[in-house]
Design goal:
99 residues, mainly beta, eight-stranded antiparallel barrel, 8% helix, globular
């Protein structure tokens, strides 16, 4: 499951549905990289997807030692690529993104 979901995110920009941040995914020689930039966010690092039971999680590593884990809900896809998704942090706060 992990490899197939990762390919859906490659070289893609997602805009936050409420707010002004942009989540950009792209592969490079260091792995699956991301930038997340906006008024309240400025992160650059690597990401991976993990599956636990029926749940998918987006794991972000940034600033050399920081990690964040979000419940990932895919809410839209087209031709095998994710067009919209929601992430939920450990406090239950949700952020939606779409292409």
């Amino acid at each position: 499951m992990e490899g197939s979901v990762l390919s859906f995110f490659t070289r893609t920009d997602y805009k936050e549905t409420v707010g002004n941040s942009i989540f950009r995914c792209y592969p490079d020689i260091k792995g699956y990289r991301f930038t997340w930039q906006g008024p309240d966010m400025d992160q650059v690092g690597t990401y991976r997807i993990s599956q636990e039971g029926r749940n998918l999680y987006l794991l972000l590593e940034y600033n050399y030692a920081r990690e964040a884990r979000y419940l990932l809900t895919i809410s839209g896809s087209e031709s095998g690529f994710i067009t919209a998704f929601t992430i939920t942090d450990r406090y239950g706060r949700e952020r939606g993104f779409s292409r």
